[in-house]
Design a protein that fits this description.
By secondary structure, the protein is mostly helical. It has one domain. The chain is built from six helices and no strands. Helix 5 crosses helix 6. The radius of gyration is 17 Å and the shape is globular. The two termini are 23 Å apart.
């Protein structure tokens, strides 16, 4: 429980919800990350600029956070190739499942989509199962 920070989690959640509302209101677009990134690889050139700005804003926000919070340290204790393979498999899975945790879990649940609620429970179940297997069997 040393890393449990409810205040920053609440502020982060509010900012994520606010950003989704702003993007939906002004651009009529959904802020599911797999859809944002997946759309960059489609042939619709008119739809790419907002996606690039969205991703740039996410990266810039993280860089600003780390600049002003020296106590934040990110470490990876796994092989970089395994992390890359996991990221690619996650991207493939989100395209196969028509969305990711940010699309289904934040936007879909907010609009009471049964499909998104079921998808989010599946994400959570397999995430917990993966952590259990990783910590107890390996």
């Amino acid at each position: 429980m040393d890393n449990f920070t409810p205040f920053s989690a609440i502020v982060g959640g509010v900012l994520i919800g606010l950003s989704i509302c702003i993007l939906l209101f002004f651009n009529h677009k959904l802020a599911g990350i797999s859809s944002v990134i997946g759309g960059l690889f489609k042939f619709n050139f008119d739809d790419k600029l907002w996606r690039i700005f969205f991703l740039f804003g996410m990266i810039l926000g993280a860089l600003i956070w780390f600049e002003f919070n020296e106590s934040s340290i990110v470490t990876f204790d796994s092989n970089p190739w395994i992390i890359l393979a996991g990221g690619l498999l996650t991207g493939f899975g989100t395209q196969l499942g028509s969305g990711c945790t940010s699309g289904h879990g934040v936007y879909g649940i907010a609009k009471f989509s049964i499909r998104s609620i079921v998808a989010t429970f599946i994400f959570l179940f397999f995430g917990m199962l993966t952590v259990f297997i990783q910590r107890n069997l390996f």
